[in-house]
Design goal:
Blueprint (H helix, E strand, L loop, with lengths): L2 H11 L6 H8 L11 H7 L4 H8 L3 H13 L2 E5 L18 E6 L8 E6 L5 H16 L3 E4 L5 H11 L4 E4 L13 H10 L1 E4 L11 H12 L2 E5 L6 H11 L3 E5 L6 H11 L3 E2 L3 H8 L27 H10 L4 E2 H8 L3 H13 L3 E4 L3 E4 L2
Parallel strand pairs: 3-4, 3-7, 4-5, 5-6, 7-8, 8-9
Antiparallel strand pairs: 1-2, 2-6, 10-12, 11-12
């Protein structure tokens, strides 16, 4: 891309009121009409609103020069909505971004995608489910897309990577200000084989209003959205609503009626989302078949470290049944089983060593198998 055109696109990315529809109408080519030479001139000729005109005519040159230096130095592709590599599914959004910033394989954006999204404060079980879903979806040939957040999003990206598949992270910030910083190493792995994408120019920091905006891009990019753990206030429900509005498939993984993390998923199911007990349910609904949809060995339950000990005794089985698959405290288990506190603590240690339960913050435990 010529430097002059690139500079124009960087300015458009920072200009309020310019979405894909405006840019395509003013600058886009058709079979009978070639694209105008300069997108800025084309937009100005289209009589934009005063605030848009002012931003185009009086840009912050120092900021644009910094943007240009960053994208050039960090192998960042700037995709206009008129570019063939720009994902066509995004154009179904009324406010589709005029410009996208992409690091990694831009071609990944054109591949069939499925989103796996959910709670940041996810449970151990929820993260394991997200990894297993993402692994199976990736093995079936789908690109797994999520938002790079901690919790379910990170687990989804990791599952796809473990499957040797492709994953796309849609970021709410500029690609030089990735959030959360704890996922920088994960972002580097995603960029190596998949793509990081944002509609925000370099230097854009995280602030709450950007995350719902990011979520609409996730929904639009994907054929299906799978929600794994979500509270009633979760941003993942917004992703699902956008997906429904775009006639995409929405799936929700059910959970315990006692868990707040399951309430959002149950709400989606009541509203018409498809209940997904496994990735096979998603693939079947999408008409995709795969000969390898099983979790990888590293994601399946580890073998019992003490198989010679035989089956669990009656007290341990009773405790395991009482624990369930959501974190509970020792007091709850004492009440449910009638066992003493020391006996419960001793049995939990045995079950943990055998890989049957997992500890959680606050002295809580949940069942794994």
């Amino acid at each position: 891309m010529e430097q002059a055109c690139l500079a124009s696109l960087l300015l458009i990315a920072r200009t309020p009121g310019v979405h894909a529809r405006q840019l395509k109408a003013a600058w886009g080519a058709s079979d009978s009409q070639p694209a105008a030479a300069d997108p800025i001139e084309a937009l100005l000729a289209a009589a934009p609103p005063p605030h848009t005109r002012a931003a185009l005519e009086r840009p912050d040159r120092r900021r644009l020069e910094a943007d240009l230096r960053w994208v050039s130095a960090h192998d960042c592709r700037v995709l206009a909505c008129t570019d063939r590599a720009y994902p066509a599914t995004l154009l179904e959004l009324i406010d589709a971004p005029a410009v996208l910033f992409v690091q990694g394989a831009a071609a990944a954006l054109a591949q069939p995608q499925a989103a796996v999204v959910g709670a940041r404060a996810a449970s151990l079980t929820g993260r394991a489910i997200a990894r297993e879903f993402a692994f199976a979806l990736a093995r079936a040939g789908l690109t797994v897309t999520s938002g790079l957040a901690v919790g379910i999003d990170a687990a989804a990206h990791e599952g796809a990577l473990e499957a040797g598949g492709t994953t796309v992270a849609v970021c709410a910030t500029g690609l030089d200000r990735l959030y959360p910083r704890a996922n920088l190493a994960l972002a580097a792995r995603i960029r190596a084989t998949g793509a990081l994408v944002s509609e925000r120019p370099p230097g854009t920091p995280p602030w709450p209003g950007l995350f719902p905006r990011r979520n609409r891009l996730i929904a639009a990019l994907c054929r299906a959205t799978v929600v794994v753990e979500a509270t009633p206030e979760s941003g993942s429900l917004g992703t699902a609503r956008t997906a429904t509005g775009l006639s995409r498939r929405v799936f929700a993984v059910p959970g315990s009626t006692r868990s707040r993390l399951a309430q959002g998923c149950h709400q989606l199911i009541r509203a018409g989302a498809t209940l997904a007990g496994s990735a096979a349910d998603v693939l079947q609904d999408l008409g995709i078949t795969s000969g390898n949809q099983h979790p990888s060995p590293s994601m399946t339950q580890a073998p019992d470290p003490a198989p010679a000990a035989g089956s669990l005794d009656k007290a341990a089985e009773m405790l395991l049944d009482a624990a369930g698959f959501e974190p509970v405290g020792i007091d709850f288990l004492v009440e449910r089983t009638g066992l003493s506190g020391p006996v419960v603590a001793s049995l939990l240690l045995v079950l943990e060593l055998r890989g049957r339960v997992a500890p959680h913050p606050g002295g809580r435990y949940c069942r794994l198998t």
